[in-house]
Amino acid sequence: MSTPQFQAGLDLLAQPILPLIRLVQLLFLTGPFDTIHEVVAELNEPIETVVRYEEPAKALAPYLDLMRDFERLKAPRSADYSIVDEAGEPLPQMEAIDLWIAQHVVSRELEDINSLLCGPCHCALCCIGPSPELHQLFFEIPLKPNETTLFPLPTLDTPETRQLTPDSAHTMQVAGRPFYEHEGPALYRWRSGWSMILPRNATCPHLLTTEACSIYPSRPEVCRKPQIFAYILDHAQENSAASQSTPLATFQATRKILAIWDCPYVKRFQNEIAAYAELCELEPIFKENKH
Ligand code: SF4
Ligand code: SF4
Fold first, then answer.
1. Structure pTM?
2. Does some domain include residue 209?
3. Nearest one of 237, 233, 234, 231 to 88, comparing CA atoms
């Protein structure tokens, strides 16, 4: 792998947008602004924070919709989420909004970065089930309901599948055998939603030759996100105090960037990924997935 092919992705890693977004939030809070848009409209000169942004307003444009949540601090309206700390206690509003925006901004930015770094690797690890030497018996590719039509595969949606998940203690049986022992990929509707299951050595039906996806422009959302993730928020445990007392979606603050070590570009660019996380004031975590 030569570095020039990765340069566009590395350039984005070296210049995360989150420090600039945090500066905009500060200017909004301390200045005579009613909207985030008013702040951004004034940022037409280069700005240097922990990194230098030559055209800050242009760099911020793809994230304006996400940043508007911060306007709730000046024009109060209710949120449809709640964020708690490790003890399950709700965070102050300003910190909660900052983390909510950070989770969505970093997710959006990493989608571009992951695509730019994955392409030159000519790798299909994410599209193939576990090889026999791994202890995992299957891989799960979660799908949104409208994404299932992308996959012309055997489908199982029964009262039993809807009560279980792929990891339930009681393993879903199909024709007297565990679901993952059947050959080839299949779609299942679990309690947790739809997913494509790739048993050992099975390949996604859209994997062409050894390394190209035949539906790349319309591939499911989950296929756009490997293998560096925003892990700034996590779904809170259902038994946390906040999740029991409120009907809002509840998340726990984790403040991390998670990178999966099996991926060749994560291994190769570990230092750059760690630096990206640190510029965002997040903790980088490297984790093995397929083992
Ligand atoms: S849809 Fe494309 S990217 Fe997603 S698993 Fe299948 S081949 Fe891979
Ligand atoms: S493991 Fe990494 S390089 Fe390989 S297909 Fe997945 S994201 Fe791309």
1. 0.84
2. no
3. 237
